[in-house]
Amino acid sequence: MENLSCYETLLEAVKDYPHGLAVYYQGKKLSYKKFDKLINRMSDILMNRLDIQKGDVLLIAQPNIPEVLILFYAANKIGAVCNFVHPFTPFNQIVSIIEQTNSKYAFLFEQRVAKEVERYREIADKVIVTRIEDFLPLGKKFIYHNFMNKAIRKKLGKWRGSFPGFKYLKDLKPAHKNPEIVRNNGANTSILLHSGSTTGQPKTICLCDNNMNFVASHACEMLACTPEYIRGGGMLSVLPSFHGFGLCITMHAPLITRFATILMPKFSAKETAKLMRKTKVSCICGVPTMYENLLKCDEFIHNKYLKRLHVVFCGGDSLPRKLQEDFNKVMKENGSTCQMFEGYGLTEGVCVNIVNTFAHNKPGSIGYPISGAEFKIVDENGKELPRGEIGEICLKSPAVMNGYYHDEAATKEALRDGWLYTGDLGYMDEDNFIFFKQRKKRVVKVSGVGVFPTEIERLVESVPGVEACCAIQIPDPRLQNAIKVFVVAKFFDEVGMRNDIMDTCRKYLIRWAVPKEIEFVSSLPKTLLGKIDFKVLQQQENERRGIK
């Protein structure tokens, strides 16, 4: 797969398995042959109707619907760059990302546009709108039309088919000129993902086709089975495309290994149980909160089709040992050989480069390196440490990013002599298993979504009357973690200022970053250098809550 585009690796699967199931969505089945036909049609539209050329950047903010995959492979085929963004990103951030990345078009889904439709009219010439229902089977499409999203009904008053003044993807017609595949060396940046960088500061990460294909090509190694064994099965794809774990492991990897992608736009434990009856779900990848919800769902834990499950993986946040034990117990009680394994990765390395599998696993560890990936542990001076000593986790593999978008200084800091310095702390044992200890970088995982305290702090400090603030992590029974903000006020109107802060956060932040709690204080602890000491605040809060 080296030096091939993502589309070219998919094309090999199309040729080999044309009538096999590639994509399943809400009862709609797309064979590899049909899927490729839709990709070719879309590449025609992109190039010949929207004048998208090699190197152009397309912002894609979509839930897990077929369009997200069709757009990705169509753009990849013609050499365009896919800039994946959270589908619930507020308008202000969308505009900022478009400007920062010089995105030619923004492909947004209708529910997102409906929330701020008048504001989106300001950039309507750059917006292409998709709809949830365009790939729904006829019966479900009828139900959707009659019981459609309330936000859209409120904006339109009645169903008229589309918002006036916007281009809809469904209305764009091909020119019937199937574009040639744009050849590249596999190393050109083809994907932009947004994450917290190795320091916890929000960055745009540049990935290439070789990065994606390297990780995806290890699917069978991670599953500990042969390609023949998994052919005809399916990967539940509920993790989002703007996350490397979702895009690579639950979408690209299964597709190039002849293993269907079963798309789920919004996670539901009951819907997962239904999908297991309707399709052959043999692998699930998710975050801890997702599995906690599954274990609370009777339809899931008493599902006779659990026997079809081969393996599940947990990532995005630390896996509680009890959750893993409880899940494996439910599998065993239902006669399933499935087990839950934990892995580790970061967007700078696409996603997982180390993982526990049936072949290599050790309790408490985050896993064993996949073939072709090297790890080492270093001290603050970059010197490699002996086994068992805690230091910074470093990675070298073909999955390591090209760099941070237009940020040479940050790239040089993260990439040194071919090694990616992850900003995470841990140790390696004598058997090459890695044990994660804590994050050196300042990122909070809220239901598996990376949230950046510094971004929240900058926003809160822009609210009139706020003198200083600090955001920390607190536990949450539903999301596993949430955000609390300590605020020092210039003048005191607690109710009014609290409302102003929350209104501002809801307007400019994704919902996982919106603070759950706000506490007003007279001062904040400082370091010897005069900076706010968030570590002291976190420790004090943990002690108050009885967290060790």
Can you describe this structure?
The protein has 548 residues and is of the alpha/beta class. Among the domains are: 29-184, Rossmann fold, CATH 3.40.50; 363-439, Luciferase, Domain 3 (Luciferase, domain 3); 444-544, ANL, C-terminal domain (GMP Synthetase, Chain A, domain 3). Helices cover 33% and strands 25% of the residues. The protein contains 20 helices and 27 strands. The strands form five sheets. It has a nine-stranded mixed beta sheet with strand order 2-1-11-10-12-13-14-15-16, sandwiched between helices. The protein has an eight-stranded mixed beta sheet with strand order 7-6-5-3-4-8-9-19, sandwiched between helices. Strands 17, 18, 20, 21 and 22 form a five-stranded antiparallel beta sheet that branches. It is globular and about 65 Å long. The two termini are 46 Å apart. The model has no long low-confidence stretch (mean pLDDT 91).
What is the CATH topology descriptor of the domain at 29-184? Rossmann fold
What is the overall silhouette?
Answer: globular
**What is the level 1 CATH name of the domain at 29-184?**
Alpha Beta
Second-tier CATH architecture of the domain at 29-184: 3-Layer(aba) Sandwich
- Report the radius of gyration as a whole number of Å: 23 Å
Number of strands: 27
Main sheet record: 9 strands, mixed
| Strand ordering within the main sheet | 2-1-11-10-12-13-14-15-16
Please count the helical segments: 20
Distance between the termini: 46 Å
Helical residue percent band: 25-40%
Low-pLDDT regions: none
